[in-house]
């Protein structure tokens, strides 16, 4: 690997960031799954630990160390920007849209993958039909309740047959660590495109830079073809 493709060589890459965390938290992180489950999530220490702990092959990531705790009953997903009819969707509103389901592999740019993940939710095409994007709209900006995490997809990418807004995972409601009430899923791209704890989708005319893209990762995060890995 050359410097452009080796995540270890990137001074501000995710691996360097996680390395910093791991240095201080290794003992806690590997104390075992029970300690994770029993730790009060209000402890900032356990929240940092959550960046490192495996959960069925998954690593649970936050950039702040604090997982947003969203009341699903009160949560609304705002879809606005370059649309005819800006709207706020409750979970019930989203469940009333045509239901999408798929099984796909999840890839993080740092090298771990989880096979056979069952997702349920809605396709972006069905969500966008409800708000009617203007002809000037070119991209979707996904904003997390975890500030300042965000990312984006072009309209074409969001309309990929296996891209979706997911509110179910492995046949259960999406859990808080995985981004409840809803997150973005696009299996053909690395996981950092999959914004968790989604609160807003803004239709824009040009793709803004996402959180990890601001730290040097590719905007087009195609698995196997982007700069973080592979
Ligand atoms: N809000 C938010 N979304 C996020 C992240 C994050 O730190 N914060 N990390 C991303 C990265 S790099 C990956 S690989 C996946 C990990 O998903 P998981 O935490 O459900 O395993 O979430 C993505 N979405
Ligand atoms: Mo990732």
UniProtKB/TrEMBL annotation:
Annotated Pfam families: Oxidored_molyb
InterPro entries attached to this UniProt entry: OxRdtase_Mopterin-bd_dom, OxRdtase_Mopterin-bd_sf
UniProt domain Oxidoreductase molybdopterin-binding: residue ranges: 66-212
Name by which UniProt lists this protein: Molybdopterin-dependent oxidoreductase
UniProt source species: Solirubrobacter ginsenosidimutans
């Amino acid at each position: 690997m050359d410097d452009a493709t080796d995540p270890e060589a990137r001074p501000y890459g995710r691996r360097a960031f996680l390395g910093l965390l791991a240095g201080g938290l290794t003992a806690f992180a590997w104390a075992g799954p029970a300690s994770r489950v029993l730790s009060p999530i209000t402890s900032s220490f356990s929240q940092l630990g959550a960046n490192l702990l495996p959960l069925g092959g998954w690593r649970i990531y936050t950039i702040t160390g604090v997982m947003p705790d969203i009341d699903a009953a009160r949560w609304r997903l705002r879809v606005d920007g370059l649309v005819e009819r800006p709207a706020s969707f409750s979970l019930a509103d989203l469940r009333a849209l045509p239901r999408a389901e798929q099984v796909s592999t999840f890839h993080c740019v740092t090298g771990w993958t989880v096979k056979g993940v069952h997702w349920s939710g809605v396709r972006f095409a069905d969500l966008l039909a409800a708000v009617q994007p203007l002809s000037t709209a070119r991209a979707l900006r996904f904003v997390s309740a975890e500030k300042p995490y965000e990312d984006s997809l072009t309209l074409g990418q969001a309309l990929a047959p296996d891209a979706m807004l997911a509110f179910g995972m492995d046949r259960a409601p999406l859990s808080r660590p995985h981004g409840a009430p809803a997150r973005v899923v696009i299996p053909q791209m690395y996981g950092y495109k999959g914004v968790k704890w989604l609160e807003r989708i803004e239709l824009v005319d040009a793709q803004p830079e996402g959180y990890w893209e601001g730290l040097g990762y590719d905007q087009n995060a195609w698995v196997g073809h982007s700069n973080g890995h592979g």
